[in-house]
């Protein structure tokens, strides 16, 4: 019995070969998984690069920063269009736009709309139009109150010949001359 059975040797060789093939298959599966992970990472990189490439636009000329608004009603007429144009050209929206408009107000004007900023922070509603509306209403009422005061002074002084344009102001306030 020194000579092992040739059939037994053949079976052992086949088992060894089968074991080797199983190891090869497992190694190939691991390699396939690694290649798939590399492919997914490459696809992600390509997607990010494509997104960056599409988002990069030719540099547009930037509008200069408008001057800080000083609260004077007559400067509002030029400041409002320039600040709105700046927001459009720089594509600022939401909190960025609100903060930019806030920054373009003089400190005393920031104090007058501090309640609007606090409300925006509480509600997370960052609309710069709120600031524009506040100063627009302020400019209108400030201008009308000055005209009304002038009209009343002229009327009280008996200068009725100069009242015709100011009577329109009184009419705006639904007032009748005394």
TrEMBL record:
Keywords: Coiled coil. Residues 11-52 form a coiled coil. This is Uncharacterized protein. The lineage of its organism: Eukaryota, Fungi, Dikarya, Ascomycota, Pezizomycotina.
